[in-house]
Specification:
By secondary structure, this protein is mainly β. The chain has a single domain, classed as Immunoglobulin-like, CATH 2.60.40. Helices cover 9% and strands 33% of the residues. The chain has 2 helices and 13 strands. Strands 1, 2, 3, 4, 5, 6, 7, 8, 9, 10, 11, 12 and 13 form a 13-stranded mixed β-sheet that branches.
């Protein structure tokens, strides 16, 4: 077999074998031109990028379906991974504006990235409808004694939010909000290991929704973990980077 075809087929086979009936997968296509991060998703590449499967209750099978739709899209180029979160929301609210505030205390959108697939070091990004960023690195899951490094900042990140409605005005009915994020590969480099050399990443996406003030919160995710704990990297989905 042509070695070039083999290199293309092997990552897809890996995803198929590991994910069969167990976790979602997504094929992240390459952009044809630079993406402008403005929250609008109006470039041709965004319009043609497929939506992920809708988010589900983090506890998985047998749980009530979310009352509002959430999904994501992804793209990539030589320098960035682009992530779009598409959030249906009838009353868009946000309160936190300080970098690295505990964003999940607001309704939020979250991204979890393990480029190396070993669960030993991964990254978390959270944002609310203001576009406030919380970014951190985790050396390993909390259950294994891991701790988070909140002083880590993703150098070169770009993030924008567009609200389809009016923020913090409950007297009308909104339609939702869109998050657009560009994460530079350089910020995810570990030692001398370039994340671009890994064509399949473990990832997850989450939405925390406070349907009733004071809780409890809803946790809607792309890849359910079976418990109310998203920090189980071996149960995350697979993202395959394709050209």
């Amino acid at each position: 077999m042509d070695i070039r075809k083999t290199l293309i087929i092997l990552p897809l086979l890996l995803v198929t074998v590991l994910c069969a009936g167990q976790c979602p997968s997504y094929r992240c296509g390459r952009t044809s031109s630079r993406i402008k991060v403005d929250g609008r998703l109006n470039e041709r590449d965004w319009k043609s990028a497929p939506e992920s499967s809708p988010f589900l209750d983090i506890r998985g099978e047998g749980q009530p379906l979310p009352t509002m739709k959430s999904c994501m899209k992804m793209l990539h180029d030589d320098d960035f991974v682009y992530i779009a979160g598409i959030i249906e929301e009838k009353d868009i609210k946000a309160s936190l504006k300080e970098r690295d505030a505990v964003i999940w205390k607001d309704n939020d959108f979250e991204v979890f990235i393990d480029p190396y697939g070993d669960g030993k070091l991964y990254y978390e990004f959270e944002t609310n409808a203001f576009g406030t960023i919380m970014d951190l690195m985790l050396e390993k899951p909390y259950r294994d004694g891991g701790s988070f490094l909140l002083n880590w900042d993703c150098r070169g990140i770009a993030l924008a939010v567009r609200c389809d409605g009016t923020l913090n005005k409950s007297s009308d009915t909104d339609r939702g909000w869109t998050v657009e994020i560009a994460i530079p590969y350089d910020a995810l480099t570990r030692n001398f290991d370039d994340p671009r050399d890994h064509k399949v990443w473990r990832m997850n996406f989450s939405r925390v929704e406070w349907l009733v003030a004071g809780g409890p919160e809803e946790n809607w995710v792309w890849a359910p973990t079976g418990v109310v704990d998203i920090h189980i990297p071996e149960k995350w989905g697979y993202v395959e980077f394709v050209d």
